[in-house]
Design goal:
It comes from Clostridium oryzae. It holds the Pfam family DUF2750. 50% of the residues lie in helices and 23% in strands. By secondary structure, it is α+β, with helices and mostly antiparallel strands. The strands form 2 sheets. A 4-stranded mixed sheet has the order 3-4-6-7. Helix 4 runs antiparallel to helix 5.
Length: 127
């Protein structure tokens, strides 16, 4: 996916962007996050609660990395590993998911257990 297509996704409404995330992630079977000094990048919301920015593929993560998190490395996580293991651990740690975090510091914040439920529902309807 080229930069212009990636930018188009970032310009969608949150509802359409969220659906696009699931479509792209199901196709790529990868979730990407960013690491700095061997630690996963998280951001805090206005209440100080952590969220992990995630993207449905390398190109989306690279777009934001180049514009906002220059001193990081992109790491891919298998979609099914993320679903089975990561989201449970994130819930336990009180960390939510920041879907399609953007260069303006936005994104769609979703509690880990709700995201897991919605991803499972989406994957079961698709396959």
């Amino acid at each position: 996916m080229g930069y212009s297509e990636i930018e188009e996704v970032f310009c969608l409404t949150d509802d359409r962007k969220y659906k696009a995330f699931f479509n792209i992630a199901a196709e790529s079977e990868i979730i990407c996050g960013l690491k700095a000094k061997e630690k996963w990048i998280t951001v805090k919301d206005e209440n100080g609660n952590p969220s992990m920015p995630i993207w449905p593929g390398y190109g989306f993560a690279k777009y934001c990395q180049e514009n906002q998190w220059k001193d990081t490395q992109i790491e891919g996580i298998d979609l099914y590993e993320f679903l089975e293991y990561w989201l449970s651990g994130m819930k336990r740690d009180g960390c939510s998911v920041l879907v399609l975090a953007d260069t303006a510091g936005g994104g769609i914040a979703v509690e880990a257990d709700k995201f897991k439920e919605e991803l499972e529902k989406y994957l079961s309807s698709e396959f």
